[in-house]
Amino acid sequence: MADDSSTNQHADQSPANGQAMADAISVIPPSIAPPRKVALISGITGQDGSYLTELLLNKGYEVHGLIRRSSNFNTARLDHLYVDPHNSNKARMRLHYADLSDASSLRRWVDTLLPDEVYNLAAQSHVAVSFEIPDYTADVVATGALRLLDAVRAATPSKPGGIRYYQAGSSEMFGSTPPPQSETSPFHPRSPYAAAKCAAHWYTVNYREAYGLFACNGILFNHESPRRGENFVTRKITRAVGRIRVGLQTRLFLGNLSAARDWGFAGDYVEAMWMILQQDKPSDYVVATDESHTVEEFLEEAFGCVGLHWKDHVEVDPRYFRPAEVDSLRGDSTRARTVLGWKPKVGFKELVKMMVDNDVDLAKKEKVLVDAGYRDAQQQP
């Protein structure tokens, strides 16, 4: 997915020159065709970014994504959506180099694109890693959101109708606050990541109140999918289930099995993000399934999908315990369901099965490589 996106401009929506008259008749003349909405997504290469891009493209948006430069391509979750930008009539997703730690790059793309909607999904989003790199986490998650907000504030007067901004919050912000947690529950973060998300949340509220921006927070509880990163506990479990099922792995090492989380499907949650920015007034919403399950319950369900017993394969390793644990998160999404009309479509059991089925198929492909000698069979314990 090579890209020279730093010079990409809006796709031309006009009919191609020389198109047959019969085809042209069915095309709405550009002069009267409604303009496409333009969305700008930071974190487009992540789980949520890919699902949100799918949703917006299906709704007719032109989507621009900000990506960090890497020596390796990090766009695998978007490959099925990619169209070469030279095919300007079909390429409605464009990628541009930028970084939340670089205010000038954010300002440049917001000024250039003048999007209708900005979705800030980018973050160093791994809670355990945030204890290892707290300074970087704070800079990207908290100050990065402030940089993007300020770019939106500066560009808004140039955009007829203004720019609408969505900030991705996290249930981790509630930390040790007893469940259920709603929009009125106090924040008590228990990690550098959670504390940084709290700062980003209040920056968003402040810019809404101080400058009148249409700036909203979506406080999303844990949401998973087959596209979840493999170092997150749910995907770590389902990847191990697949490998154990085909004989590539025998053991799985985890931390706190009694931690309870409100797990939903990421594809459902990005729809809530979009709904939040379609309201008449900006506000903040908790998005959740309103039920919680422990890691042990997730293990039982996941291993059960392939007829295995999790206790035969799982060991607790103290290195995976966090310096400050979050025991229980369970959302109260009454406001989102009432005001937005949103509700989750995928339940817990269906979500786990979806992830396990995907990762069993992936493990079977891995085994082909191992059996052919292209991969070391001893990579996993």
Automatic annotation (TrEMBL):
GO molecular function annotation: GDP-mannose 4,6-dehydratase activity
Pathway membership, UniProt: Nucleotide-sugar biosynthesis; GDP-L-fucose biosynthesis via de novo pathway; GDP-L-fucose from GDP-alpha-D-mannose: step 1/2
Record flagged with keyword DNA-binding: no
EC number(s) per entry: 4.2.1.47
Keyword check for NADP: yes
InterPro entries attached to this UniProt entry: GDP_Man_deHydtase (IPR006368), NAD(P)-bd_dom (IPR016040), NAD(P)-bd_dom_sf (IPR036291)
Domain annotation NAD(P)-binding: ranges: 40-355
Coiled-coil boundaries: none
Gene3D superfamilies with a match to the protein in the record: NAD(P)-binding Rossmann-like Domain, UDP-galactose 4-epimerase, domain 1
Essential cofactor(s): NADP(+)
TM ranges: none
Pfam families (UniProt xref): GDP_Man_Dehyd
Family affiliation: Belongs to the NAD(P)-dependent epimerase/dehydratase family. GDP-mannose 4,6-dehydratase subfamily.
Cited PANTHER family: GDP-MANNOSE 4,6 DEHYDRATASE, GDP-MANNOSE 4,6-DEHYDRATASE
Function, in words: Catalyzes the conversion of GDP-D-mannose to GDP-4-dehydro-6-deoxy-D-mannose.
The protein, known as: GDP-mannose 4,6-dehydratase
Gene name, Swiss-Prot/TrEMBL: LOC120259555
